[in-house]
Amino acid sequence: MNLTVIIMFLVFVGATLVITYFASKRTQSTSDFYTAGGGLTGWQNGLAISGDYLSAASFLGIAGAIALWGFDGFFYSVGYLTAYLVVLYIVAEPLRNLGKYTVADMIAARFELKKVRAFAALSSITIVIFYMLAQLVGAGALIQLLFDIPYSISVILVGIMMTIYVLFGGMTATSWVQMVKAVLLMIGTLIISFLVLLNFNFNIFAMFGEMKNITAPELEGSFLNPGAQGNSPLNNISLIVALLFGTAGLPHILMRFFTVKDAKTARSSVMWATWIIGIFYILTVFLGFGAAALLTREEIIAANPAGNMAAPLLAERLGGDFLMSFVAAVAFATILAVVAGLVLSGASAFAHDIYGQVIKKGKMTDREQMLAARTAALSVSVLSIILAIFAQDQNVAFLVSLAFCVAASANLPVIVYTIFWKRFNTQGAITGIITGLVVSLALVILSPNVMDPTGSAFIAMEPIFPLDNPALISVPAGFIGAFLGTFLGKAESHDKYREVKVKSVTGISTSDVSH
Amino acid sequence: MSKIDYKKIAAQPEFEALLRKRNRFILPISIFFIIATLIFPVLTGYTDLLTNEAFGNISWAWIYAFLLFIMVWTLVTIYMKRAKEFDKEADEIIRKYREGEYE
User: Fold this and answer.
1) CB neighbours of residue A152 within 10 Å
2) Cβ separation of A513 and B97 shorter than 8 Å?
3) Mean pLDDT of chain A, nearest integer
4) What keywords sit in the KW lines (chain B) (predicted)?
5) Which end of chain B is more exposed for a tag (fewer CB within 10 A), N or C?
6) Dmax (CA) of chain B
7) How far apart, in whole angstroms, are the C-alpha atoms of residue B75 and residue B81?
8) Is the pLDDT of residue A462 over 90?
9) Residues A170/A369, Cβ–Cβ less than 8 Å
């Protein structure tokens, strides 16, 4: 533990607290708290989406996976990025035109039943908790490694920080922290990539050439080609399905579309996000290859068996303590910003959908709503800190891919049908959410993540379902469930669908026609 | 605030035309990028097509992955362009409705 790291960390934490202080003065209404007053511009929100998306799994996880497994690590970058086309082409604008604070708002724009809202909120909360756990477990490991303090204390520290951002600053503070963090993350990644390229005299072919020579007993194929990790093809396909369709169902990403004033700005924020995220994922090649070339495999694995410390270690090798502290502080800020965003989306599902709309039937003063939102944020924080302390030994990537899978199976089918299918009805929406949620969770319990004959998972037995990620089955199940449910339920009037169509296509609102 | 007559707007030929145009643009492209993405793990998992080297030490798998990045950026740019046209038509529909031309 050295002084540079401590100073760098304190500077970061201090700076983000200053942001929160100024944001808290601007956070007065419920709309400020949930959506930063809907006043972000396209590039600001694009940057914030990138900040939300480029979590520890991307920065630490993918860099490490490429360093250890070559192409197999990069594979995931591809799925994470193309997912934004689903967001842009199918979800972003209708969502912005129909919703106010949450995904459930959008589905409720067509079906007024409280039940639909409650189930939509339930699936959002499930996704948020899995995602949250992954981030907190990752944060705990990072802080534990850097400062040499116990894991549980690390998690509590991160938890307290994130709670401060959310409680006092709401969405405004969280958005700004995400923007600042996205810029710093890009700067750090660019610096490391530049230094790696310098090392290869800017000859990319030479870099690939050196990677060709990487061998290790556990590599089942060549480092430069798919398959080094020895995953079954079906497993890879299933994972890509989860990533591709999951992003468009992640509550904390979708919630970002309510922080802009209209669908046009929502669209341009996706454009900005796609460029930033895409460039970042290209650079993960340099992070990973650099680590593979300049560090030994043993070094990377010794620091963390999954390779999560490859990027910070590479930074230390290339730029000494200063760059290493910068990267570590950025990684810390990354996790913090992402969990803050998650707390907000979990809290809005509780406070806005379940408490506000289902229990209080929408009859609340703005003050009561704020109180409910803050109480919910505090509860989500405390609950996830407690869960994270017990989830220490869970694989971070597994938890994240699970969140993507539930999002793709329970949320996306219902979102798509709500926008595009005339015959879709209340029964279909409820059946779809339940099917997606139950099938994905059940298959995970029967999968190698939970059942493993060697005893490395929860239950020591042969897994009943062979795939790590069940998206290949559960996503179609969600679509089929919603489809069958629709035909079991009774046909509904098409008036509401017409309204949804007109709103989602034209973006018309009462303010357009009031005189 | 006045209430919006969605039924009336939905019945306008201009609105129906815009809706059809949007869907005709979005649907084929969505199917294309979904297939282009999903076929990638299928090709790498079940064939050796992408393991040969394309340029120097870089195999076709990297080229395919890189092309998917280019695809994303291209399709985003195309969407931004087309969406601007749709915006204009949508604004026109809102204007006509507001000015009572659909009576």
Assistant:
1) 15
2) yes
3) 88
4) Membrane, Transmembrane, Transmembrane helix
5) C
6) 68
7) 10
8) no
9) no
**CB-based contacts of A113, cutoff 8 Å, min separation 6:** A426
Please identify which residue in the block is written with the tokens 């093809």: A233
**What residues 278-297 of chain A have any CB closer than 8 A to a CB of chain B?**
278, 281-282
Q: Write out chain A residues lying below 8 Å of B3, CB-based.
A: 510
At A165-205, the pLDDT tens digits run 888 888 888 888 889 889 999 999 999 999 999 999 988 88
| Preferred mutation among B40, B89, B92, B96 to probe A, highest tally of A CBs within 10 A | B40
Distance to chain B for A228, nearest Cα, Å: 11
Q: Does A502 contact B15 at a Cβ distance shorter than 8 Å? A: yes
B44/A233 touch (CB, cutoff 8 Å), yes or no: yes
Q: Which residue of A has its CA nearest to B1?
A: A514
Span A377-394, average pLDDT: 86
Contact A142, A328 (CB under 8 A): yes
Q: Do A510 and B3 touch (CB under 8 A)?
A: yes
Kindly state whether A266 is in contact with chain B, defined as any CB-CB distance less than 8 angstroms: no
Q: Which residue of B has its CA nearest to A210?
A: B57
Please list the alpha-helical segments (H only) found in A200-230: 204-212
What does the pLDDT read at residue A515? Answer: 45
Q: State whether residue A40 is helix, strand or coil.
A: strand
Rounded to an integer, what distance in angstroms lies between the CA atom of residue A208 and that of residue A434? 47
A258 membership: H or E segment, kind and range? none
With beta carbons under 8 A apart, name residues in chain B contacting A421. none
Q: Cα separation of B39 and B33, whole Å? A: 10
Q: What is the CA radius of gyration of chain B?
A: 22
Distance CA A503, CA A312 (A): 47
From CA A394, how far away is CA A138, in angstroms rounded?
A: 10
Q: Say what the alpha-carbon torsion angle A4, A134, A298, A219 is, to the nearest 10 degrees.
A: -150
Decide if A225 and B61 are in contact by the 8 Å CB cutoff.
Answer: yes
Nearest to A315 by CA among A165, A189, A146, A452: A189
Amino acid at A465: F
pTM score above 0.95: no
Q: Which residue of A has its CA nearest to B88?
A: A506
